[in-house]
Amino acid sequence: MQNAPPTSPPVLLSSRGIFDLDGKRVRLKELDQEIAAPDLWDDPRNAAALNQEASRIRDDLSTWESLTQRASDTRELASMVEAEPDAAMTHDIETELAALEKEIGRRQIELLFSDPYTDHVALIGIHAGAGGTDSQDWAQMLLRMYLLWAEQHRMPVEFLEESVGDEAGIKSATIRVSGPRAYGLLKGEHGVHRLVRISPFDAAHRRHTSFVLVEVTPEIEDTVTVEIDPDDVRTDVFRSSGAGGQHVNKTSSAVRLTHIPTGVVVTCQNERSQQQNRDVAWRVLRSRLLALQQAAHAQKVADLKGELIAAEWGSQIRSYVLQPYTMVKDHRTEVEVGNAQGVLDGDIDPFIEGYLHWAAREGAESKAS
After folding, report:
1. How do residues 94-135 score in pLDDT, each as one tens digit?
2. Do the domains spanning 10-112 and 122-360 agree at the CATH topology level?
3. Cα 82 to Cα 353: distance, rounded to the nearest angstrom
């Protein structure tokens, strides 16, 4: 063996900053202090959340330390083989390095989750934008894509609202996706999605561009405080207007909440009673307003909403091209997939993983600057 292996496989070395292990250690100390408080269990839900977060960080740190130790042991073996060549040991070293690379690749995604709402339920709102009937059909296609992805990952889905299109597709829909790290996985889908294709609704068979806004927010507990003035919320009650079937209970009384200062609108029509729909709608409204407040960082919520809500040309996070070629490209991460149909059939993991890596790098660079 001419050269000893490095202390760690390249992917292990390049990931240290992205994983922010120092930040995780600092956060664990903070959590340990909070968990040690004598009145911790006065609020059982908060206590459980703190213990869960601390356990997850300990697992992350333990994983890193184990991988680092294995890499160090491998280097020591390599040094021995360099001094006294041994074919069997050389093979063992190469096997261990390959195993390390594979294990790191498997664990890498887990270590990238840092959002405090990672494990929360994901609320996905899909809204047809510019493009008329084509846009409403595109919204239906995206809804199907997320349903298939959730099915593949065995994540339960609940419909909260669905408004059918005038001729085809849907005007909007809101679904609730639960499961391990649902919000952490899906949050990168938030933004405008652009479709380019030959329109099935155009008699001249021209190419059309359609836009759909996808909103992804974590569902928050009732105990989380979000200041909402009841006078700022308009409540409308109406009969369910969805397509029916398993998605909509036609006998329920639908509730629509409009937060006037920001223009955020939440509709729920899936529950059996008006009060149940009202409760769910308020929970979704709190979740969306909290997400806006966090993303704004010091900006006014209304200003932020004005930046994000425009589902039109130039604001897309991802483009799906079906004509004259097939390609799906994420404009933030540069992840590109040629099998567009596979993506529309729910295979969006490359984009989810690409976003997690991209967001981690952005965060590391921001801290460094």
Report:
1. 888 888 887 777 677 776 787 778 888 999 999 998 778 999
2. no
3. 38
For domain 10-112, give the fold.
Methane Monooxygenase Hydroxylase; Chain G, domain 1 (1.20.58)
CA atoms within 13 A on the CB side of 27: 19
Selection from 164, 170, 46, 61 nearest residue 116 by Cα = 46
Q: Of 361, 362, 369, whose CA–CA distance to 16 is shortest?
A: 361
Check residue 224 and give its pLDDT: 59
Residue 298 has pLDDT above 70, yes or no: no
3 state SS of 162: strand
Q: How many residues in total does the chain contain?
A: 369
In contact, 332 and 189? CB cutoff 8 Å: no
Lowest mean pLDDT among 136-145, 217-226, 312-321: 217-226
List the one residue out of 219, 12, 252 whose CA is nearest residue 123: 219
> Which token pair is 321?
């091209």
Q: Which residues contact 361 (CB under 8 A, 6 or more apart)?
A: 18
The pLDDT of 325-333, averaged and rounded, is 96
The residue extents of the domains of the chain are 10-112, 122-360
Query: In the predicted model, is pLDDT for residue 337 greater than 90?
Result: yes
CA gap 174, 221 in Å, rounded? 18
Rg of the chain taking only CA atoms, in angstroms = 24
Token pair for residue 86?
């041994």
Tell me the CATH class for 122-360: alpha beta
